[in-house]
Amino acid sequence: MNDFIGFALKSRTGLIRFVLMMCGVFGGIFFFYLIMLIALVLDGSIGKVDIPFMGSGGIILSGVCFASSADRLIRMGVNCGVSRKTILKGLAAAVPVYAAVSAAMTALAELIAELVYQLFGLKLLGFGHELAEYFLWEIKDNWRMRVYGCCAVFMLTLFALAAGLMFVGGKMHSRRRGITAAAVTVFGYWVFSVNLDYDGWLYDLLERSAVATNPEYFAWQFDNLPSLFFTQCELLALTLVGVYLLYGIFAVMLRNAPIRGRETG
Amino acid sequence: MSIELKTLTKSYKKNLALDRVSLTIEKGTICGLLGRNGAGKTTLVNLVGNRDFPTFGEVLLDGVNVRENDKALKKIYCMGADDLIPVNMKIKEVVSSMRYFYKSADLNYAEKLCKDFRLDMTKRLSQLSTGYRTIAKVIFAMASGADYIFLDEPTLGLDANHRELLYRLILERFEETEAAFVISTHLIDECAGLFERCFILREGTLIADEDSETLRSSAFVVDGKTEQVLLFTSGMEVISRSELGTLSSACVKGKPGNVPAGLEISKPSLQQLLIAMTADEKRG
């Protein structure tokens, strides 16, 4: 198994390629924001509008990059005599590293974008904005938010990576199944995370039903903990459940999948 | 040391690709895996390499099942005709990746082979012609250092010069490493000199598993006038027959015995024998 983990983390085909792809992705996002910045300058709206940063876009794209990397890793692994069992274990071990790297890159990209925008009197409403505020002005008061904000980005990245794995697992059976798997996971991602920030129905539903069944416990929660703390805990738990579910589906798919190069499909 | 296939069966829905194939490949031999298109050669290679799983039966390496067995699979390298290696990878990237999996992978040897074939290692597989892509895959296999190397269509798209070079290099590598080579090809006469043993598949069934020489000696070709040939071969096991005007040719199993005047007897080439053994019955 160490061979495969080494290949996933040290080789040019693995983590290095993934990081380069992520750099490309964030380069693209930066380019988009710079164009938007120029448009705002020309429009004379500088200092008047706040723009949401597409951090979620970066996380989803990290899932896509990971799917591409995982596809290579699995194909090369199978070509070079690695069993599916070892591939599954190796990827399970490598995924948190990939997630940590891409979460850090996402946070850094948001922070830099935020700082660039602040030079022009604008702000990006996203995790980068939160980070910038915490680091620059409110470090002492908001440590919980910062910690859980970081965790949320990490967990959401894990979710996106698991979605990427599911796509690859589906692709090994057939391309149609891979695309279906990806569509389902993107929807799942939206329901579990992206939509949460905008009064998502699933979150509301869960919270309402949870509060209705345990009113005393939740009253205590709301009295004793900041609301964001509670929200983030729930978000992290839901995301983690989603990650495990997706990884489980991927494992079942890959375990029985014949890998036959271009013939597959 | 050997690889043993025991009643290996593979079916895809209603299509039976391999039907209870049992054979043994000893280390230190070069074997030919022969058969017509769709006979099950690639399926067999994929099953040995754990790329696909058998419906029934098993592949044993020194008595141990290779299925999901990393230790056993490290001793086998299967070069497939299809593109399992991502085509947008550079050759040098693939070569350097191999050291993670095969401890005895010889990267210098891979570089030497690239020079011999004038293959630019900085190119991506997708940038290569069909022939050079085949060469690249053969190089990966030969440099892997595996004990059992399966080459599925290693001559696909290769010109005559490169084929000659390839046969020479296979022999050299075989003498150096004593690895077992199993070569699946349709250019049988060209490779016949390499094969010590032949496995012939027909519609998923193993119909021959013999030494090349024994196989060739097991049959003879008789040519002559149709009436004479028919008379001579009556009661014999005729593998195939063809007619051209008043003349006939028949490939017959066994020894010729006393041959009447007017008939010519010859030893079939491996290719002739394969054509005879795997011909459609209608055409037969």
Description:
Chain A has 265 residues and is mostly helical. Chain A has one domain (2-263). Chain A is built from 10 helices and 2 strands, in the order H-H-E-H-H-E-H-H-H-H-H-H. A two-stranded parallel sheet of chain A has the order 1-2. The two termini of chain A are 28 Å apart. Helices cover 31% and strands 31% of the residues of chain B. In chain B, the strands form 3 sheets. Chain B has a 6-stranded mixed sheet with strand order 6-7-8-3-9-10, with helices on both faces. In chain B, strands 2-1-4-5 form a 4-stranded antiparallel sheet, covered by helices on one side. Chain B contains 10 helices and 14 strands. Chain B is of the alpha/beta class and 284 residues long. Chain B is globular.
Number of domains of chain B: 2
Beta strands of chain A, count: 2
The helix tally of chain B amounts to: 10
The fraction of residues in strands of chain B falls at 25-35%
Biggest sheet: strand arrangement of chain A:
1-2
- Distance N to C terminus of chain B: 39 Å
Secondary structure elements and their pairing?
The complex is a heterodimer of chains A (265) and B (284).
Chain A: H1 2-10, H2 12-43, E1 50-52, H3 55-79, H4 84-119, E2 123-125, H5 127-136, H6 143-173, H7 175-192, H8 201-213, H9 215-224, H10 227-255
Parallel strand pairs in A: 1-2
Chain B: E1 2-12, E2 15-26, E3 30-35, H1 41-48, E4 56-61, E5 64-65, H2 70-73, E6 76-79, H3 91-98, H4 107-116, H5 130-143, E7 148-152, H6 160-177, E8 180-184, H7 188-191, E9 197-202, E10 205-211, H8 212-217, E11 219-225, H9 226-233, E12 238-244, E13 247-253, E14 264-266, H10 270-278
